[in-house]
Each structure stands twice: as structure tokens, then as C-alpha cells.
Write a structure and sequence with these properties.
The protein has 172 residues and is α+β, with helices and mostly antiparallel strands. The protein has four helices and nine strands. Strands 5-8-7-6-9 form a five-stranded mixed beta sheet.
Length: 172
């Protein structure tokens, strides 16, 4: 264990856990081309454009929330994606409310000829993996009900990664 890991473990033991009501509210992505990003997030995935700041930024959501995803070109207009092997966003995970809604997302991706980089069953969830037009990783997934999560005899969670059956998902 590294010194940093030891310090983090000690701090965690000394402090109270974070409030269970804390959640991730939104994410802002640096994009090279705002119109291209909007075509993907609104045109393909189906997010709703909530507001634009000229040609530099836009805010999109599901269900009328002020924004789940901010897209901006403030520091990235015309820029390339970060090179592999560098730090930054691994992926943005977008949770769908049902298996049918996830199947709809897959149909949209197929209709737009957008390639998946993976599709996995994790026991607790089913996930589609892809990259947006700027190379940002996306995970589109649905959670299974907690009662269906795989558990060991002692009750501990036993997540796994198995290939997801896309044809079965599309049949939903």
C-alpha cells in the first residue's frame, strides 16, 4: 500500500461518510465542434436542448431538467481529443430507467451507424460502451433491481463482466 493510500484510508476511518443523498448533478464536456456535439447528444441520443450560449456552449437534459450535460468549446474549439494514455475522463455513464429504454438507445445508435466499443452484462447492470464525436467515452446503462444483484452466500456483492446479448436487448 502506498503512503497516499494509507493516508486516504486513515482519513476515511476518521471522518463520517458522505450524506447518502449526495448525487452527481451534471457534467460539462469540452468539445471541438458544438454543432457536431449537439447532433450527437440531441439528434442521436435524444437529449433535449435546454439553452445555448451562442456558438460556445449548450446545455442538454432528459425530462426538462436544467441540464445533465453541458457542452462547451471555451477551451477546445477545433481541438483534437486527448491522446490515449493521458489523464482525463474515462467515461460518462448515463443511466436509463428500463431495459426497454436502453434498447431504444441501442436502436438509435444502430440507425446512426455509431459503433459500440463494448457491451457488457455486469450482473448489477447492462451497459453499452461507445465514444462521442470528440472521443469522450460513454456508458449507456440500466441498473437491475437490487433484489436481482448477484451475491455470494455471505451477502457480499459479486459483480462480473460478461458479454451482453444485443439481439436479446433489441427484442425487448
Amino acid at each position: 500500500m502506498t503512503e497516499t493510500s494509507r493516508r486516504a484510508s486513515e482519513l476515511q476511518r476518521q471522518s463520517a461518510p458522505i450524506d447518502a443523498g449526495v448525487r452527481i448533478g451534471h457534467v460539462h464536456l469540452k468539445v471541438a465542434d458544438l454543432e457536431r456535439a449537439l447532433e450527437f447528444y440531441c439528434g442521436v441520443l435524444g437529449f433535449q436542448l435546454m439553452q445555448r450560449y451562442g456558438t460556445e456552449a449548450a446545455f442538454v437534459s432528459a425530462g426538462g431538467y436544467h441540464h445533465h450535460i453541458g457542452l462547451n468549446t471555451w477551451e477546445s474549439r477545433g481541438g483534437p481529443p486527448p491522446p490515449p494514455g493521458t489523464t482525463g475522463l474515462f467515461h460518462l455513464a448515463i443511466v436509463y430507467p428500463s431495459r426497454a429504454a436502453l434498447a431504444d438507445a441501442l436502436r438509435r445508435l444502430l440507425a446512426a451507424d455509431i459503433a459500440l466499443t463494448g457491451a457488457s452484462d455486469h450482473g448489477v447492470s447492462e451497459a453499452l460502451y461507445l465514444n462521442d464525436p470528440d472521443g469522450n467515452g460513454l456508458e449507456l446503462y440500466r441498473d437491475r433491481p437490487e433484489a436481482e444483484w448477484p451475491r455470494a452466500a455471505d451477502g457480499t456483492l459479486q459483480m462480473f463482466t460478461r458479454r451482453m446479448d444485443l439481439q436479446d436487448l433489441l427484442a425487448t
